[in-house]
Amino acid sequence: MIIETFIGLIIILASGLAGTQVLIDEQPSLKITLHHLNAYRDVIGLCALIGGLLGMYHSVSTGLSTIYSPLYWLSWTSSNLIALCVGIHLAYTLIVIKVPHRYLSFIKLCTYIRDLVAQRSHAFCWLGLALGSWRVLYPWLNS
Predict the structure, then answer these.
(1) What digits encode the pLDDT tens for the residues 97-123?
(2) Using CB atoms within 10 A as the burial measure, which of 12, 32, 34, 135 is most buried?
């Protein structure tokens, strides 16, 4: 239950950082908070990336779709996909520096995902905030 809440908070922070301009346009008072969070951009992105990878693995490989309702599985998988994409977007510089250049196709995929999130930051921001809030609240409401 605590892990779900933590991953949900990471998704909220990461999607907020990915859509910084969208949030500042909507709520100008968030500018200072987002500015302070920007210093931890790589760390939050890496946490979102790892959480998204583990969540996607769990969602696809364990037959989660047969255990829970289809709506739960869709929300779970969507939140993990958002975490994965936003995590790659935020931790892109860290990925490019640390991954050996012989994995060129992986770096190209990361570049494509980074550009996709940058072009559609509005959608990724609001989806991430909504699904992250769901991930934070669902374990506590369901217990």
Answers:
(1) 988 888 889 999 999 999 999 999 999
(2) 135
**CB neighbours of 46 closer than 8 A, spacing ≥ 6?**
87, 90, 91, 94
Please report how many Cα atoms fall inside a 13 Å half-sphere around the Cα of residue 84, on the Cβ side.
Answer: 16
Say which residue the tokens 């992986």 belong to: 106
Q: What is the pLDDT of residues 43-74, one digit of tens each?
A: 999 999 999 999 999 888 876 667 777 888 88
The first and second tokens of residue 75, run together, are: 């929300």
Query: Are the CB atoms for 125 and 23 separated by under 8 Å?
Result: yes
**Cα within 13 Å of Cα(138), Cβ side:** 18
Tokens for 60?
A: 């696809």
Give, in order, the Cα–Cα distances in Å from 26 to each of 11, 16, 86, 100: 19, 12, 20, 40
In this prediction the pTM is 0.89
